[in-house]
Amino acid sequence: MTIWEVLLLVVVTGGIMPLSAMVDALNLRLQFTLRYAYTYEVIDIYASLTPSQRRDSSTIDEVQAAHDSIPFNLSWQATSALNIIGAFTTAVLLFSSLANLDLLAAVLVTLSLLPQLFGYSLVAKAENFYWPKQAASSRRAEYLENQLRYARSGTELSVLNGAGQFANWAKAKHEIVRGYWIKIMSIRFTSAFVSGLAALILIAGALSSLIWRSQVPTDMLAAAILGVVSAMLATKSAGSAYGELMASAPIVMRYLKLRNMLKVNAESNSVTQALEAPGKAETLIQCQDVDFAYSEQDGTVLKDLSLEVESGKIVAIVGANGAGKSTAIKVLTGQLKPQNGNVYSRLGVSEVAIMPQDIEKFELTIREFLSLPYYHNQLPSDEQLWLVLEKVDLAGHVRGLPNGLDTQLGEQWDGTDLSGGQWQRLALARTLLSDAKLLVLDEPTSSVDAESESKLFQMLKSETPERSVLLVSHRAWTLRYADKIYLLEDGNLVQSGAFETLKDQEGPFRKLFESQDWSHK
Ligand SMILES: Nc1ncnc2c1ncn2[C@@H]1O[C@H](COP(=O)(O)OP(=O)(O)OP(=O)(O)O)[C@@H](O)[C@H]1O
Question: Is residue 301 within 6 Å of ligand 1 at its C-beta?
């Protein structure tokens, strides 16, 4: 041997270990790259869901299944494919060198690959069967855990003495998910045992053939056994890589299908349909003969309902708890599709600004909270922000905060908190900030004190006639500002008209508000 040959041998033998460690590191890097790419895509999927898709638990379960499979299946795809290529190359090389010594042994060693491939196919099938099943429990566990994790809900749970119970429920849901994993692992174990046994018999056959049939000399036999052992290792990694690929391929297909399905649904399921209203030119939105039920078993919530919002007017929907006011607003603004009847709108999505009944207290800075709908557009200026804060009578308070508009909300972020009424006013300011023609306000002042409420209603009145307002209110005296009032009772429209008329009429309107002070402020 020359010095160069020895050197080459040293590099090849000594280099294999660091080389394989380097390949592992690159594999891991590839997995992480894919993992984050998929994670960002799932975040975008969550962001693009329409309100009706969010209400459909099977759609949300599918997204959760995709989310859960990212660290396991989705990001393994590329490395599994690479492993298969590597393992097959090794297997082919070993087959050709073993075939020189004993063809039968080479064939048997190669055949020993098959039981593993078959076993992993079964495992893949099982994984694909159980993955979507665990998604509903995993989503529930995540919800329960998040309630414990977030400061606001976590504090409420501690005060209620309910945190321990939430922890138990979360663990119970995780146990269900773990149960699915155990099933998958048992199938993996059984498959590995059976296919391993079959492979062992074939390898034993290959060794016997080498020893007794081909009578390979002892020095060659040692090399041949080494070859067989290497072949086994190669076929093993080919089998598992193939299994991973088999397991992840249908999940990836499912994931792609979900992505396309959501895209199609989002297009066909547009929240507001800009249809031409058939009625008067001044009608902005209108529903005619609408029946609505949340589901077949829930029963009809809105019955043969017809109402309209005219341009430049304040329209109020009133009624007892559960009468269907919020539902009517959601149907009118295209958030819910009625089973019967028609909804018409002259307004595009950006021309309607909605403030829901239960506003979410997003813990952002005040500027971020107010600017939330405008990030894809031009962000509002400081001047615009202060103007809406003035309108809702919150400017004074915000000026007193340490960082003004950039004050962080939420104590868990070392920020500050607001009172219930202040949060509501901040959300109202966000709605006013838009240049929408129609403001839809579901009980916008339910947490606001009487004096502030009075100012807010005067402010809303001054927004008309440039803008129109559709609102739900429970306070009798605020209805003085309404140009038209619709009274719902158990989903039926039972009375409508101007405040003064309804107030002086014997009927459900008077009855609903008889205990309240009509003339406040
Ligand atoms: N997502 C839902 N699924 C099934 N039923 C619902 C759903 N949301 C509301 N409901 C039911 O529909 C009916 C009308 O509810 P809605 O929220 O429209 O009433 P509301 O008049 O706004 O009441 P409140 O004054 O208490 O806000 C109620 O009986 C309620 O239980």
Answer: yes
